[in-house]
Amino acid sequence: MFWGIEISKVPVKFTPAFDLHITTACLSAVAKDTGRNVLQVKYDGKTYSLCSLKLNSTEHSTLDTNFEEGKEIEFSVSGNNTICLTGYFVDSMFGDEEQGDEEDDEEEEDEEEEGMEEDDEEEEDEEEEDEEEEEDDEEDDEINKELEKQILEQALKRKAQIEADKNKQQKKPKQEEPVKQTTPVKPASPAPAKQTTPVKPASPAPAKQTTPTKQAATPTKPVEAAAKPVAEKKKPTSSVVTLPSGLQYEDLVVGNGPSPKSGKKVSVKYIGKLTNGKTFDSSLRTPFSFRIGIREVIRGWDIGVASMKVGGKRRLTIPSDLAYGKSGAPPTIPPNAALIFDVELVSCAQ
What we know:
Distance between the termini: 43 Å
């Protein structure tokens, strides 16, 4: 049976008639104060803090707290907002009904029949789930192949562009190299004057040889200048960025639209994989929407998507402490698992 109550600064005391299980605490819909609100309970003469809530940050908290029937409970809030508590009374509230032996036998028979029917239904459900998982795996394989094809095409385009740039840089020095052939050979032509008188050619020969040597020395400078861009191309560059938090990202496509703002809604397409390459989640056909920066998603997404631009595609490598941590998300995500997401920012509210 459902149970709920609103708690404010004024303490609320009551004694449950049955064992009470509290599951959720959240701020009231009319909460306005942005300060911290601490939910406290006084039980067996001692005061305990159950959770701390804050507007626009942590507005709800999941609880798993049981209180014994017949014992007084006192709830209060340290803060200016009202907190709503919800839960339910456990099965003991229904009591034990005395029934005859005949009714017990009939109930046992009914339970056995129901158990057999449930077993059959469970087997059918398991078969349907297996078929659905196979279909999902096939769909994921198709999506992975398409994504890998796009990434390969982009890599080939980059490689072709780099090769084209290298060829351009190599061709420039070759066009200037023929200048080196302008050697001072022609001034040696006055040598045939020896057939007449050897004295006359001696005076003009030094004058003609001085000018070509200066012209031959100058062409070497453009060749050295042209070689510099080739040397600069050899400097290695890395497109993977590592943040102090340990998160890594690589921009596959840089967008040209606006960047998200904290608290505003964004829409993304994505595919999530484990480090062994297995896909555990995807939303490539229908965009997924959330408000960024307020912990509606894992911290790795809040950090990694914040600096993207609309139209961009980015690969996020998220360590476990920014994802699902030690507990993981069974059965798809194991404990302490690092996650890899390929994310496309479709739109963002401004």
